Amino acid sequence: MNAVIIVTGKDSKGIVAKVSAKCVELGANIADISQTVMSGYFAMILLVETDGISVPFPDFVDSMEHLGGENGLVIKVMHEDIFNSMHRI
Amino acid sequence: MIERNDIAETLKMIEHDHLDIRTVTIGVSLLGCASSDGKVFADKIYDKITKTAERLVPVCNEIEKTYGIPIINKRVSVTPIAIAGASLTKSEDFVLAAKAMDRAAHAVGINFIGGYSALVQKGTTDGDKRFLRSIPDALTETEIVCSSVNVGSTKAGINMDAVRMMGGIVREAAEKTADNNCMACAKLVIFCNAPDDNPFMAGAFHGVGEGESVINVGVSGPGVVCSAIKAMPDASITEISETVKRSAFKITRVGQLVAKEASRRLGIPFGIVDLSLAPTPAIGDSVARTLEAMGLETCGCCGTTAALALLNDAVKKGGVMASSSVGGLSGAFIPVSEDEGMIEAAKSGCLTIEKLEAMTAVCSVGLDMIAVPGDTSAAVISAMIADEAAIGMINGKTTAVRVIPAIGKNVGDMISFGGLLGDAPIMKVNTASPEKFISRGGKIPAPIHSLKN
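YS: structure for the whole thing
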């Protein structure tokens, strides 16, 4: 299965590195990244494959959200099916 | 690949517009629990409920985490207790059953349990009478048990004996819980054409034609619809209708996803998604504000019924295609105390009970969570029930009454229920007496189905 990770917050050095390092640590494979900075505000969307993650999916969500909290960012992780359900017939 | 705009839109709906799953409700059949011994019956229903709904809360928490969508309430509905407990010989035995429901609900960690109910649209059995008399005590002595009574239907007409009885029961329930904001009345609803698969409280019960157990899901989303309408200030009514349909489709798809996933994880068949726009007292989650966004100064002014009719119909049209099975109440809810905009409109005097009654002719449910003066007579409450039931019976739709006679309070005062049940201003009621009409008893016969005018 795939999950979407959304990262937002004030821009600083190393955000991409920290998030991607956490993905590797937990066994998630990054399939796509889109990232931008607007007026000092950082926004990134990752699509990750989570079939090989080393922890149950709810724990993966908690770990990523915790990483956000530690770094002054908001990180949300959502199963891709919610987007596919809402926006595709 | 998922479009960035779609991700942003979904996030905005959840974070900003209060999109959530209002409830995942498991319907549980208690037909196999029948016993003439009150204690045995209570034990059996406790076991059946706790066994069937054991994993509901943890599974909903997992789903919430996986999809990032809040699931606000987890609930259970059961077979109407007046039917499952028809052989109980004392009203006190029914109260024992209510307490067992309450204990079971607390044990599995759910928010509400519904089905302390009776279906008396055509007539009232001796067991039904014992059950009805137990309602005030049952709701006083339990915390999260909800009760409903169906007093009429389009096929059977209106049971005016039951209507008369329910006016007194609503008053008694209010008096017994006077020191707790008359809370029993917030958990008691009187229906006409009650649906068998409604996941929403206080009216949820597991219909007798349903299977052993079933998952029904209620979505929410007035904030999403309101936001979409606000984004098009110069649009025509036709364009608004199309926009509401599109929003309702997206909201319902989330409900369908959650319902299917809950069904799979719990191993319980999926029943229906209820398409209702269910408000909360939070700012930005209001049906009244959605109507105002269409161009009404205040909810309750002339034009409100038309705007609500449009909203209700468009929600259904958008939602029907998004789910494989739709049911329950499906429409827009207009509970006064549970809707921030309705509370303000009622406080200002613009929204009256008479206007609310007109609105119930075109939307789901009826006079819902309305506080009336504490000295409102049982006959007036019965007559309000009769009026609402008549609207439902003639129009072939569900209507309901959940009024709270606020003991010791009068017009202009407020009464607070807390949480999703909100706060209600005490509204003015026409006090001219319908006593003679109500005291006659008997039946209003089922309506004719031709010569529709």
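YS: worth flagging: Chain B touches chain A at residues 1-4, 6-7, 9-11, 61-62, 65-69, 250, 253-254, 256-257 (CB under 8 Å).
IM: good catch. Also Chain B has 16 helices and 14 strands.
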